[in-house]
Write a structure and sequence with these properties.
Elements: H1 2-27, H2 37-56, H3 60-68, H4 74-84, H5 92-113, H6 116-139, H7 142-153, H8 185-193, H9 199-203, H10 205-208, H11 215-226, H12 253-257, H13 264-268, H14 275-280
Helix pairs in contact: 1-6, 3-4, 4-7, 5-6, 6-7, 7-8
Length: about 280
């Protein structure tokens, strides 16, 4: 019975790897981007625990939650989604995590006491919750946990994390984008990292003035262009807009020209997404 539970853990791990590769394949549609992986991965703990937390801490409840889970990265990021954005996909992730944990406890208790029926029930519950979480890596809320870690490690403007101003033009093989694949791959990872917390929406002066721009919807438009089969965006739309536009099949030109490039959205984003760079491109 214990061997069956170990097998389940290995199967779930294989599923995690498979879903991660599936997500990475979607980012490979983007263009090349120079990334110093050694430096990025070495800086990842500080970027997550210091830079991300610095933005999260602007909200006291979220700051306490973030401190409580600071010992983890991917698991911690999953809890960040729950703490910052409880409305994301309802309470599905919370129940799946609870099912996996409760199933593991029940299975362990059954194995310890030699009761095969509770052990099998626990393994079944853990398998269901774990499998749903694994599937969610590519298509659900867990996608943001993996993408967020990759985005922070391969950030297109790493100088931001050293306190330097990061708003100048970056070198590019060509200017502008016509399709989602024209973005560099690490930009695509950044779009997937969005947790739809709405801080950029609250900070945007164009949105507050009723202009046809919602930075949160903009990032979700781009993420949907990358993942057409993803769940539909249910947040606030671009003011005065209800249908897709001609740019990438998702954006209206008026949405792009409404941006003042003030970078208020960028400063407010806890995942360090570069909204303005996407608009300029």
């Amino acid at each position: 019975m214990a061997g069956l539970f170990v097998l389940l853990a290995w199967l779930l791990l294989a599923g995690v790897v498979g879903q991660a590769l599936r997500l990475a394949a979607s980012w490979r549609r983007g263009g090349p981007a120079p990334v110093n992986w050694a430096r990025g991965l070495a800086a990842l703990p500080r970027r997550y625990l210091v830079d991300v937390h610095g933005v999260v801490a602007l909200r006291a409840a979220a700051a306490r939650m973030h401190q409580a889970i600071a010992g983890g990265l991917l698991g911690g990021t999953a809890l960040v989604l729950l703490g910052i954005l409880p409305a994301l996909r309802g309470a599905e992730m919370l129940w799946l995590l609870a099912a996996y944990a409760a199933g593991g406890f029940l299975a362990s208790l059954g194995i310890l006491l030699g009761l095969w029926l509770p052990a099998l029930a626990g393994i079944g519950l853990a398998a269901w919750g774990g499998a749903r979480l694994v599937v969610g890596i590519a298509t659900g809320p867990m996608r943001h946990a993996l993408a967020g870690a990759v985005h922070l490690a391969a950030h297109p403007r790493p100088e931001r994390f050293a306190g330097a101003t990061a708003s100048g033009l970056l070198p590019a093989q060509k200017f502008g984008v016509a399709t989602i694949s024209d973005f560099a791959w690490n930009r695509l990872a950044g779009f997937d990292a969005c947790i739809q917390c709405g801080r950029c929406e609250e900070a945007c002066p164009a949105f507050a003035a009723g202009q046809k721009l919602n930075p949160k919807a903009l990032i979700q438009d781009l993420a949907t262009a990358l993942h057409p089969d993803a769940p539909s965006y249910a947040g606030s739309p671009h003011p005065g807009m209800s249908s897709p536009g001609p740019v990438l099949g998702r954006l209206h030109a008026e949405t792009l020209f409404a941006c003042t490039t003030c970078r208020a959205c960028v400063s407010a984003c806890p995942m360090m997404i570069e909204h303005v760079d996407a608009v300029i491109d």
